[in-house]
Amino acid sequence: QVQLVESGGGVVQPGGSLRLSCATSGFAFSTYAMTWVRRAPGKGLEWVSTIYTDGGTYYADSVKGRFTISRDNAKNTLALRMNSLKSEDTAVYYCARGGRYNYDRRGQGTQVTVSS
């Protein structure tokens, strides 16, 4: 069955960095766009970034220039490098199969807390 498992979250100080990973299985990873979304405390899901099968990448304005999405089709993994983290980046981060508006599966998430 389709599985998406996020890892790499944690507690980091403002200005710090984290790298999230998403291990996938049960589907042809290389043929899907992949997306990161997040849910901050008390808020709804927010789109963060999408990478397409041709390697094209898109970012929310709030993370542009700080976050980098990447994929390894040989390992069926998705990653999100997050630099210059801010308190407002605190959220549960989910990887999702599909594009920004049409993802159909989501992992269980990994918590990122940015705090001094």
Question: Given the structure, what is the number of helices?
Answer: 0
Radius of gyration: 13 Å
Provide mean pLDDT, rounded.
97
- End-to-end distance, in Å? 40 Å
Verbal overview:
- This protein is mainly β.
- It is 0% helix and 50% strand.
- It contains no helices and eleven strands.
- A hairpin with a 4-residue loop joins β7 and β8.
- The radius of gyration is 13 Å and the shape is globular.
- The model has no long low-confidence stretch (mean pLDDT 97).
Q: What brief labels describe this structure?
A:
mainly beta; single chain; 7-stranded mixed beta sheet; 4-stranded antiparallel beta sheet
List the helices and strands and how they pair.
Elements: E1 3-7, E2 10-12, E3 18-25, E4 34-39, E5 45-51, E6 57-59, E7 67-72, E8 77-82, E9 91-97, E10 105-106, E11 110-114
Parallel strand pairs: 2-11
Antiparallel strand pairs: 1-3, 3-8, 4-5, 4-9, 5-6, 7-8, 9-10, 9-11
